[in-house]
UniProtKB/TrEMBL annotation:
SUPFAM superfamilies: P-loop containing nucleoside triphosphate hydrolases. It is a peripheral membrane protein. This is ATP-binding cassette domain-containing protein. GO terms for molecular function: ATP binding. The keyword ATP-binding applies. It comes from Devosia neptuniae.
């Protein structure tokens, strides 16, 4: 059964870089919640504020306004439980692993830190189990160094390493964008399986709105640090209500995503205007379908 109480929530969070006239809202009054057994896709073009949200969640940045809530409690600096519960998978599986260490070492390290009571034999068994979870053969993989692995295999090791501490939330920032097209779906399927079998709450960050369909129950579309549209994936993809979401979808060469091409073409003539208007701060929110909301463009 899906737990409807959020594991993690951003409550009206803003992050500003720079000062005065040159300041940029990398995140502006962003609120969303991650729930066990569900994936939320955070979608937007480069510079829309996706990675800033990930860094806020990973506590690399402090919010200028708003707060993070972990199981309903405001997150403080000293929450060791939070650090263990919230793990990240990075875009670049090549730089995420230390070339001097074996797979066994990479997976044992978090176990040594977070499960101090394990014997050497128990750690070895735990590493084998983690490798099996990410569909890699422990007998073949444990002794290998990162340079002996393919990109897809490295990303599976990164996922296994994140799982080693028993997380509740995984933040996956563009986890497939540096991989060959042929292995991308395998990684997304693996994340799906982790979500289901371990009841993880996933935040899937991507610039590619089409891939959100494979993993996410819900989608948030961001532009200029602001959430412009959010709702159930099917509803947002099949019936996008915000001009900026339609702009993103217009760039998707995917016949499975249905939208009235002619209707969007008229808007595409006005791309710059859509971006300019979508970037304007807009506090008004409208519900356009069950659980499906937009921040209407002002003016
Ligand atoms: N440390 C920083 N200092 C100054 N400006 C920053 C910093 N980090 C992000 N920004 C700015 O904040 C805005 C949002 O950036 P962010 O990296 O969150 O976007 P993004 O959607 O993740 O883009 P990408 O997909 O390219 O990573 C951008 O205008 C960016 O230039």
């Amino acid at each position: 059964m899906i737990d409807q109480n959020p594991v993690l929530a951003l409550d009206n969070v803003s992050k500003v870089f720079g000062k005065g006239d040159t300041s940029i809202y990398a995140a502006r009054s962003v609120s969303f919640a991650l729930r066990a057994g569900r994936t939320l896709a955070l979608v937007g073009e480069s510079g829309s504020g996706k990675t800033t949200c990930a860094r806020l969640i990973m506590r690399e940045y402090q919010p200028d306004q708003g707060q993070l809530l972990f199981r309903g409690v405001p997150v403080t600096h000293s929450m060791a439980a939070y650090r263990r519960a919230v793990q990240m998978i990075f875009q670049d599986p090549f730089s995420a692993l230390n070339p001097a260490h074996t797979v066994q070492y990479h997976l044992e390290r978090p176990l040594r830190l977070h499960q101090k009571g394990l014997s050497a034999a128990q750690r070895k068994a735990a590493v084998a189990e983690l490798l099996e979870r990410v569909k890699l053969d422990p007998a073949l993989m444990a002794a290998k160094f990162p340079h002996e692995l393919s990109g897809g295999q490295r990303q599976r090791i990164s996922i296994a390493r994140a799982l080693a501490v028993g997380p509740e939330v995984i933040v996956a920032d563009e986890p497939t964008s540096m991989l060959d097209v042929s292995v991308r779906l395998g990684i997304l399927n693996l994340l799906n399986e982790m979500k289901r079998s371990l009841g993880l709450a996933l935040l899937y960050i991507t610039h590619d709105i089409a891939t959100a369909r494979y993993v996410a129950e819900d989608i948030i579309v961001m532009y200029a640090g602001q959430i412009v549209e959010w709702g159930p994936t099917e509803s947002v993809l099949n019936d996008p209500q915000h001009a900026y979401t339609r702009l993103l979808l217009s760039a998707v060469p995917d016949p499975d995503i249905r939208f009235a091409q002619s209707q969007y073409n008229a808007e595409m003539a006005d791309v710059d205007n859509i971006r300019r208007l979508s970037a304007a701060p807009q506090p008004v929110i409208s519900e356009v379908g069950p659980g499906h909301f937009i921040r209407p463009i002002a003016g």
